[in-house]
Amino acid sequence: MYHPYHPPADPQLVRELTQTQQELRTHVKLLPLPYEPEFIAGCDSSFPTPETILSVFVLLRFPSLEVVEKVWNVGPVEVPYVPGFLSFREAPNVLRAYEKLQQKPDIIMVDGHGIAHPRRMGIAAHIGVMLDKPAFGVAKQKLTGTFQEPASTKGSISPLTDKSGELLGEVIRSKDKVLPLFVSPGHRCDQATATRLTLACLRGYKLPEPTRLADHWAEEFKKELR
């Protein structure tokens, strides 16, 4: 995968971001969702230019997955690129997009990681804590941990664990013979809830509908910026 060149991160900035992540981590709660959601939101961010970020929320009724609302916000990138700290680039704009939702979701499915992160603070955990809302991550690539490849059939699952055996997430085959997804809880959600809702939101594509539609509308909204 191609990664554009970025200058080395400022050590002082890395220390500050690490300290903030460690503080945020103390607020993470991994709990079963106490009720069946009526609304689930998909969240995705992209960078139309190196200086701008576009964040999208698509709100769906659950379990029908009927689209109720879609909102977006574009803003300046306020934090330089530092591997492992991408949530600081995304979260401020994500929160501004969230405020535009007239109907707030019961849970948020984020395109990215929850606790399956070297410091257990991926973007789903970050915005879950910031909003104090149930959230979990559905990512297309592994960030940390080890796993055995799940069977090639849809619905096959294997655990994603760290070196000590701690469960970081689950690796889910969302469609026959496609690369798996990495699903992890973020905040006010547990692994069982994150996995169950991911599987419940599959409609024949690799990505579950909330994040698939958020990604789709991010591309559509980008056209309005050109």
From TrEMBL:
<comment type="similarity">
    <text>Belongs to the endonuclease V family.</text>
</comment>
<keyword id="KW-0479">Metal-binding</keyword>
<keyword id="KW-0963">Cytoplasm</keyword>
<keyword id="KW-0378">Hydrolase</keyword>
<feature type="binding site">
    <location>
        <position position="111"/>
    </location>
    <ligand>
        <name>Mg(2+)</name>
    </ligand>
</feature>
<feature type="binding site">
    <location>
        <position position="44"/>
    </location>
    <ligand>
        <name>Mg(2+)</name>
    </ligand>
</feature>
<keyword id="KW-0460">Magnesium</keyword>
<comment type="function">
    <text>DNA repair enzyme involved in the repair of deaminated bases. Selectively cleaves double-stranded DNA at the second phosphodiester bond 3' to a deoxyinosine leaving behind the intact lesion on the nicked DNA.</text>
</comment>
<dbReference type="GO" id="GO:0043737">
    <property type="term" value="F:deoxyribonuclease V activity"/>
</dbReference>
<feature type="site" description="Interaction with target DNA">
    <location>
        <position position="81"/>
    </location>
</feature>
<keyword id="KW-0227">DNA damage</keyword>
<keyword id="KW-0234">DNA repair</keyword>
<protein>
    <recommendedName>
        <fullName>Endonuclease V</fullName>
        <ecNumber>3.1.21.7</ecNumber>
    </recommendedName>
</protein>
<dbReference type="Pfam" id="PF04493">
    <property type="entry name" value="Endonuclease_5"/>
</dbReference>
<keyword id="KW-0255">Endonuclease</keyword>
<dbReference type="InterPro" id="IPR007581">
    <property type="entry name" value="Endonuclease-V"/>
</dbReference>
<keyword id="KW-0540">Nuclease</keyword>
